[in-house]
Design brief:
It comes from Horornis vulcanius. This protein has six helices and eleven strands. It is α+β, with helices and mostly antiparallel strands. The protein has three domains: 60 residues, PH-domain like, CATH 2.30.29; 101 residues, Phosphorylase Kinase, domain 1, CATH 3.30.200.20; 61 residues, no CATH class. The strands form three sheets. The chain has a six-stranded antiparallel beta sheet with strand order 4-8-9-7-6-5. A three-stranded antiparallel beta sheet has the order 1-2-3, with helices on one face. The protein is globular.
């Protein structure tokens, strides 16, 4: 499932495609010559997205459900504190923050504390069908074992019969893309500040032999190891790359 947004910045007749790949929001920006051409493109993309969504739903309706029980039960049913095991009933569900193939992200409020969190709710059957079980469990382990001011923290993780739930720190300052679109150009000091935050977070992960890989994490990576898949957002890549 994808979102299509129309804008006149940074160029006229711009449209943006936003989707959720696993648990990572991905955006791509395109420019065309006329409003009519933009309308044709967005309608065609939405038609393809709707068709793929229907096909996925039909395929999942035919999938067995016995294999989706208790994915990594010991790893998933845990919290970062010694509180009792959490359930869906411990939260008020306020607003949908994002939605994609694997599930959705919802703004929630913990009933006991009144604190706000972002809850990622992932469908077990889709994770299994897409062969993402290992990646999901890796994310759970990394989130539980990392503590850094520039990394989003995990408060709780638990599961139901057909869902995996990650209760994350709610960060409402907006995406880098939003601020860059509004400011057009960052000052050197602001750019240096953002860069320092990112480098600090990556250095922390690397010190634990964890590689951040465009929304996915890989553990136990040695200094000489290399990855084999392209990663990154084309709009942000350096020209020489």
């Amino acid at each position: 499932e994808c979102q299509l947004m129309k804008t006149e910045r940074p160029k006229p007749n711009t449209f943006i495609i936003r989707c959720l790949q696993w648990t990572t929001v991905i955006e791509r920006t395109f420019h065309v010559d006329t409003p009519e051409e933009r309308e044709e493109w967005t309608e065609a993309i939405q038609a393809v997205a709707d068709r793929l969504q229907r096909q996925e739903e039909e395929r999942m309706n035919c999938s067995p459900t016995s294999q989706i029980d208790n994915i990594g039960e010991e790893e998933m049913d845990a919290s970062t504190t010694h509180h009792k095991r959490k359930t869906m009933n411990d939260f008020d569900y306020l607003k949908l923050l994002g939605k994609g193939t694997f599930g959705k992200v919802i703004l929630v409020r913990e009933k006991a504390s009144g604190k706000y969190y972002a809850m990622k709710i992932l469908k077990k059957e889709v994770i299994i069908a897409k062969d993402e079980v290992a990646h999901t469990l890796t994310e759970s382990r990394v989130l539980k074992n990392t503590r850094h001011p520039f990394l989003t923290s995990l408060k709780y993780s638990f599961q139901t019969k057909d869902r995996l739930c990650f209760v994350m720190e709610y960060v409402n300052g907006g995406e880098l893309f939003f601020h860059l679109s509004r400011e057009r150009v960052f000052s050197e000091d602001r750019t240096r500040f953002y860069g320092a935050e990112i480098v600090s977070a990556l250095d922390y992960l690397h010190s634990g032999k964890i590689v951040y890989h465009f929304g996915l994490c890989k553990e136990g990576i040695t200094d000489a190891a290399t990855m084999k898949t392209f990663c990154g957002t084309p709009e942000y890549l350096a020209p020489e790359v």
